[in-house]
Amino acid sequence: MNGKANKRNGVENGNFGEDLVLANSISNGEDLGPIVRLAFEMGRPGPLLQQLKTVMKKKDIEIEELCKTHYEEFILAVDELRGVLVDAEEMKGELSSDNFKLQEVGTALLSKVEELLELHSMKRNIMDAMTMSKNCIQILELCSKFNDYLLKGQFYPALKTINLIERKYLQNVPVKSIRMVIKRRIPVIKMHIEKNVNNQVSEWLEHVRCSAKSIGQTAIAHTASLRQRDEEMLERQRQAEEKSLSGHNDYFYPHDVEFIDEDCFLELDLTPLYRAYHVHTFLGALSQFQDYYYKNRTLQLNSDLQVPSSQPFVESYQSYFAQIAGHFITDERVLRTAGRLLVSDQIEIMWNMAVAKMVSVLNEQFVHMDSATHLLLVKDYVALFATTLRQYGYEVRPLVESLNNSQDKYHELLFEECRQQIANILRNDSYGQMVMKKDSDYENSILLFDLQTSDIVPTFPYTAPFSAMVPDACRAIRSFIKSSVDYLSYGGQTNSYEIVMKHLDKLLIDVLNEALLRTIHSGNVDLSQAMQIAANIALLEKACDFFLRHAAQLCGIPMRTIERPDDTLTAKVVLRTSRDAAYMALLNLVNSKLDESMALTDKINWTSEEMPQEENDYINEVIIYLGTVLSTAQEILPLDAIYRVGIGALEHISNTIISAFLSDNIKRFNVNAVIGINYDLKMLETFVDKKFHITGLSDMFKEESFRECLVEARQLINLLLSNQPETFMNPVIREKSYSSLDFKKVASICEKFKDSPDSIFGNLSNRNTKQNTRKKSMDMLKKRLKDFN
């Protein structure tokens, strides 16, 4: 029993716990659904129902207790509630009446609302229709605008328009069929635009190739004009510096610097290319277009680099290089303005290929050129070409080096041309003094080359001391200097003046001097020609200073820098040597003519029985000839040359007299022959003394006169006519009176000397004391000379 009671109590306690949980859940207003669901799932709905009843009983008890506690308040609340109920009924009646009235009024309004809703629906439909119509109109307008762009060839705006239709408006087209038509046409339209753009680019490529020569010529001509302007400015600056150094500080020269945009004078329309670039960029086909453009430009360049065989290079070189210049000027503009169509690496590849080809062409053409003028023209144009392309950022050093390598070839051709010119000048020269009839002749032939001997302008007609060969040769040499400077001016040479001096020296020595020497030693030159050649060489030697100044001026070298004593031409010394050779040739001709006149062995009676009373006939001929030579020389030769010719001729006369006494054809001679030669010598001495003073040589050469050139002959004659010839052996007397005589010559001559005429009665008729004394003295001299030897 106790066990069952405990068990029942346990169950009751368990049920009590569950009732408590259920009561708390109900009090808290919690959802009992999960608890009910759990009870049914566990198959125990009975206990749950029992618990609910238990909870309900508890709540009833609580309510009953609560009512008992608040009974009076509850009664009052019920009374109030009944009052409220009465009021509610009244309000219900009023509401019913109001509702009826409202229904009557609302019926009319409801019909209006329905009409309004219908109108709103209509409005919405109209608005939708208007929106669709607006979309259609916009599409139609864009299509119309696209057609206009397409007709005008404005493909890039056309593409932007079609892209706008496709991206923004196409999906709003209400009609599917129209939308599909437009959608299918868009790729076709893009292909059409791309095809047209490519055609335009092809036409532009052909056009720009045809225009490349004109573009290159224009750019090169502009470079030439800039170079000319710079040269003029440098020349004005040089003149200003020289005037400043000379004290004239009021000289002004402008420093205007003009900046010119090359784009303003190059007529180059890149619009088709820009259009194609933007179109292909828009279509996403830029890489294909880049390859297409680069490939075509490379093919065009390869074609342009081929030297035309239809005409000589000297006739086509300008077109050849202008075409290449135009090509790369165009590509430089494309690189600079056409986005990423070209890259610098591609242009560098094309340029390196072009430079290699041009260098090869120039080397080959220079080898076969036979004219310095042609080579200079080509070189000058290529230098302008290189300067022009350098301004556009291209590396032209290999091209300039190729031009510099042709320097020797150019000067070889220039030497050959000058050699022919000098040969023609010498061949055609009359070797007569040049007569100038007016001021212009004097300026062009004398003042131009600084050949004047005085600052006073002579009266005309004026006879110059040189022949036409001198100004002609100076012009040829001046032209050579100009050509050499022109060749070196624009090749990057920093020492052009030294190079010009070197080539000028070579020209004067190897060409002009050699030609003069060949003429001198040709054997076909007479006395007047030899004299004129000697005078010409003296003037050419003087002209060397002009050549040096002219070269410095053309090279832009200040004159003060070339006035140093060590800065001169070697050719000046060489020409001086050649002038000496001309003097020797002149002197040889004079001596040859003197030899003809002084055949003393035939023209003198060496054993005359009669004492002569005057000079021999030959001496008059000699004096006349010497007078003619010295007078002619005085007109064209400088005083030192006249002096050299004079002393050379007189020394030759003196030697001829000595040689006559020593000749094997003269076995003996007597005093009468010596007396005759003494008359000759006195007459010659008188003549040369007079000439020495008349020509002005006495003021310049005071140490040795013409007379002193005859001293050996005079001392020999004095010895042979001396009353005491044995005094020759006295050292003091010999040093004073016979210092020029040679012992062996005197001994040989004295052996032939007989102090009496060669006749049967000579010894009887000429015996006197004086003769005997002189004879004894002569015999003593002969003996002593024999002992001395």
TrEMBL record:
One of its GO terms (biological process) is pollen tube growth. One of its GO terms (cellular component) is exocyst. Keywords: Coiled coil, Cytoplasm, Exocytosis, Transport. It is found in: Cytoplasm, Cytosol. The keyword DNA repair does not apply. Signal peptide: none annotated. Residues 51-220 form the Exocyst complex component EXOC6/Sec15 N-terminal domain. InterPro entries: EXOC6/Sec15, EXOC6/Sec15_C, EXOC6/Sec15_C_dom1, EXOC6_Sec15_N, EXOC6PINT-1/Sec15/Tip20_C_dom2. Residues 399-752 form the Exocyst complex subunit EXOC6/Sec15 C-terminal domain. Component of the exocyst complex involved in the docking of exocytic vesicles with fusion sites on the plasma membrane during regulated or polarized secretion. Involved in polarized cell growth and organ morphogenesis. During cytokinesis, involved in cell plate initiation, cell plate maturation and formation of new primary cell wall. Belongs to the SEC15 family. This is Exocyst complex component. It comes from Trapa natans (Water chestnut).
